[in-house]
Amino acid sequence: MPPFLSQRYDQLRRQYGALSSTCVVDSPITNAKFLSRNKDLALVAAGFSGGQGKSGVDAGPTALIEAGLAIQLRDHLRYNVHYDDKIHYCNDIVPDSDPDHRGMKNPQATSVVTQKLSSHIFSHAKEGRFVVTLGGDHSIAIGTISGTAKATRERLNRDMAVIWVDAHADINTPETSDSGNIHGMPLAFLTGLASEKGGKPFGWLNSEELRISTTKLVYIGLRDVDHGEKRLLRENGIAAFSMHDVDQYGIGKVMDMALAWIGNDTPIHLSFDIDALDPMWAPSTGTAVRRGLTLREGSFIAECVHDTGSLIAMDLVEVNPSLEQEGAEKTVEAAISIVRCALGETLL
Ligand SMILES: NC(=[NH2+])NCCC[C@H](N)C(=O)O
Ligand SMILES: [Mn+2]
Ligand SMILES: [Mn+2]
User: Fold this and answer.
1) Does residue 172's CB lie within 6 angstroms of at least one atom of ligand 1?
2) Residue 18 has pLDDT above 50, yes or no
3) Quick one: 74 exposed, middle or buried, by C-beta within 10 A (0-12, 13-18, 19+)?
4) Could you say which protein family the record assigns here (predicted)?
């Protein structure tokens, strides 16, 4: 465990005795309080691919829907699913010219898409719907997280936490990024570590209500983190559990620590990049990295987060069925099972 986290962990232990199971707050908040009782769920398909260079990730949502995700959520998990049967944000918003800006590729397109997505997600979340967004590349989290963060503040008067499950930290600033791909930067914009002046592509994120705090961000599954990103994690004391931590403590203990860090009165947005899983389970993704989570470990993370009763939204991103095509079906199935676990299917 990184030293900053172990200090925090010790402090929590002193405060609460043992961790998550016995953390006591005055008013434990359950799903019933965070979300509407009739299990309203909005399903948003966001097939944007401009946050990285490989085509095919725009077809991720279609693959998940065609494999039956919406029907399963309705029929098996009994959610009241709001789904408009449309894939949004594919090639419908391509500006005529989109020159690089601070080294970022497609800055204008990504900005326009994520800003629209942000209000789209906000409009669902403010009604108390659980929001599931299917990507698309991970740049779409700029839209989903800013949308739910704003809704959470308005509706619950609370700051939201983010659990980011990924092989990558996706917290590069335009200046620390080697690739210029914005799917490697969403958390830098969402936390304000990379901000822009008004009038610049991501200037719209300057409003505090759209942002999240670095203290409420927790990573799980990291194993391919760039130099500049490691420095940002260290300097900002961000809670991060790498694959090394998963090996050392086991996924059970890692989840105890991750959830203790967040505390049990905080709404949670889960952003799950399918490349957090080992390519053995999810080969069809743009930046696959070996030595990853097993499907069981990924499912366990989703189950634990569901079990908090505080989960209000999730993203499932980076499924690219056109890569490693013989493994595409397996990747889609893994992605669907992560979503189902996060929605409570496997808990008794
Ligand atoms: N969402 C992802 N798959 N991100 C991969 C990011 C890879 C690399 N760190 C970059 O910034 O380009
Ligand atoms: Mn990733
Ligand atoms: Mn990612």
Assistant:
1) yes
2) no
3) middle
4) Belongs to the arginase family.
Residue 315 Cβ inside 6 Å of ligand 1? The answer reads no
In ligand 1, which atom is closest to the CA atom of 179?
A: 12
Active site residue 84: no
The rounded distance, in Å, linking the Cα atoms of 77 and 346 is 10
pLDDT tens column, 235-252: 999 999 999 999 999 999
Amino acid letter, 227 = H
| DSSP reduced 3-state for 46 | strand
Sequence-distant (≥ 6) Cβ neighbours of residue 64 within 8 angstroms: 134, 316, 319, 332, 335, 336, 339
239 beta partners: 218
Is residue 170 part of the annotated active site? The answer reads: yes
ipTM of the complex: 0.98
| Cβ pair 171, 80 in contact under 8 A | no
Annotated active-site residue 124? The verdict is no
Report the b/e string of 45-54 with b at 16+ CB within 10 A: bbbbbbbbeb
Q: Ligand 1 centroid vs 123 CA: distance in angstroms?
A: 29
In whole angstroms, give the CA distance from residue 295 to residue 158.
Answer: 32
For residues 151-161, give the mean pLDDT: 96
Domains plus CATH for the chain? 3-342 (3.40.800.10)
Write phi, then psi, for 315 (nearest 5 degrees). Answer: -115, 145
Ligand nearest to the CA of 173: 1
pTM of this prediction? 0.93
Q: At what angle do helices 243-262 and 3-16 cross, to 10 degrees?
A: 40
